[in-house]
Write a structure and sequence with these properties.
It is a single chain. The protein has a single domain, classed as MetI-like (MetI-like fold, Orthogonal Bundle). By secondary structure, the protein is mostly helical.
């Protein structure tokens, strides 16, 4: 009986190891081919939206301010998962069908645009008004002062929170699995559905997410240290 248990445990360990080994490459491919590219593309698009939205919030035009506030309010006031469901599952009911890749791109870009716009707006407001006046005193227009003086300084202030936002987006892309986009977590669901080892496979996916975030956090620390030296 004791020998039988040892053999059974040994067989189970071999099975678990076999599952981990064979699922690692598909999960890694899911991360490299889908999760990371999706994060990069949507973060860049979201950053462009964020700058535009932040400038609209800071402008003196009431209509632009109102539109920007409405956009930020509706995105920040509703869950990202609900936004993805509206885009992918809701829009087809009114005749607008979008594939999972584009749906995920739209959802994450809009979400990043709203949240990061507040980071950029706060960074711009943190620059002393004397910097605006200094730029205008040497003949710059307000737009030139913004582009040449204010935004370069605001970018240094906003890098740490934007880096945190990027790391958070890496993890949030797992929500794309709910709209059938085959990123890393979706791949782990497919693998787990075949071998029924949900805890094992999901834990392996979690470790891969963790390693990616650790690497990005390390890179973030290096960039911030470099910026501190530059400012000093």
């Amino acid at each position: 009986m004791y020998l039988s248990n040892i053999l059974t445990n040994s067989d189970m360990q071999e099975r678990y190891l076999d599952i981990l080994v064979h699922s690692f490459l598909p999960l890694l491919k899911g991360a490299l081919y889908y999760t990371i590219p999706l994060t990069l593309v949507t973060f860049i698009i979201g950053l462009i939206l964020a700058v535009i939205t932040a400038l609209m919030r800071l402008s003196g035009v009431k209509i632009l301010k109102g539109l920007a506030r409405f956009y930020v309010s509706i995105i920040r006031g509703t869950p990202l998962l609900v936004q993805l469901f509206i885009i992918f599952y809701g829009l087809p009911s009114v005749g607008v069908t979008i594939n999972p890749v584009i749906s995920a791109g739209i959802g994450f870009s809009l979400n990043m645009g709203a949240y990061n716009s507040e980071i950029i707006r706060a960074a711009i407001l943190s620059i002393p008004k004397g910097q605006w006046e200094a730029g205008q005193s040497i003949g710059m227009t307000q737009l030139q002062a913004l582009r040449r003086v204010i935004l370069p300084q605001a970018s240094r202030v906003s890098i740490p929170p934007l880096a945190n936002s990027f790391i958070g987006l890496i993890k949030d892309t797992s929500l794309a699995s709910t709209i059938t986009f085959t990123e890393m977590f979706r791949k782990s669901q497919e693998i787990a559905a075949q071998n029924y080892e949900f805890l094992l496979v999901y834990s392996e996916a979690a470790v891969i997410y963790w390693v990616i975030c650790i690497a990005l956090s390390f890179l973030q620390g290096k960039v911030e240290a470099r910026l501190d030296q530059f400012v000093a």
